[in-house]
Amino acid sequence: MSASFLDPNAHAALVARIQTLTPDSQRQWGKMTVGQMLVHCADQLRVSRGEKAVTSLRIPGFLKPLAKWFFVTRLKSFKPNMQTLKELDSQVGMTSPTTFEADRQTLLDLLNPAKYSPSGVEHPVFGHLSHNELGEVTWKHLDHHLRQFGV
Fold first, then answer.
1. How far is 37 from 148, CA to CA, in rounded Å?
2. CA dihedral in degrees (107, 86, 78, 42; nearest 10)?
3. How far apart are CA 140 and CA 58, in angstroms?
4. What letters, b where the CB count within 10 A reaches 16 and e where it falls short, cover 101-126?
5. Rounded CA gap, 32 and 53, in Å?
6. Is the pLDDT reported for residue 122 higher than 80?
7. Domain residues of the chain, as ranges?
8. Could you tell me whether strands 127-129 and 121-123 are parallel, antiparallel, or unpaired per DSSP bridges?
9. In whole angstroms, what is the distance from residue 89 CA to residue 127 CA?
10. What's 97's DSSP letter?
11. Distances in whole angstroms, Cα of residue 94 to Cα of each of 35, 124, 128
């Protein structure tokens, strides 16, 4: 089992890493600024919560278990410069950044484990994600982007 942002210890470690970011944090790869990365990660959580629609990718229901199996179960970590959904792309469809501090706080608010149902979520790409699956795939995504900025 991978780390999960829903686990209190892993959650505290992620929050501490997010808190070490500064507006001047430099990326190790990719195109996003640190502020864009905060919004990108918040948008990923908005998608998972059903608060941000995904219209750029339509996966037939019968293929969602395969996508989930690969990205949630088999993929150990995200690779630098992986393609993202249009709705999460900083150049195309991502929510516009505001200020560094406000965007960081938005991400931290969305990371509150109490906001997530023990029954999981209905994800537009993966179908039903259990509480554990949501926690693990979100942790992998956040870890990937925090490593992108050296934390």
1. 9
2. 0
3. 23
4. eebbebbeebbeeeebeeebbebbbb
5. 21
6. yes
7. 8-148
8. antiparallel
9. 21
10. P
11. 12, 16, 23
pLDDT reading at 49 higher than 60 = yes
d(CA 86, CA 53): 11
Dihedral of the alpha carbons of 17, 124, 74, 33, in degrees to the nearest 10: -30
The pTM of the full predicted model, rounded to 2 decimals, is: 0.85
Question: Could you read off the pLDDT of 9-35 as tens digits, one per residue?
Answer: 999 999 999 999 999 999 999 999 999
At residue 81, the pLDDT reads 63
For residue 6, the one-letter residue type is L
What SS3 state is found at 122? strand
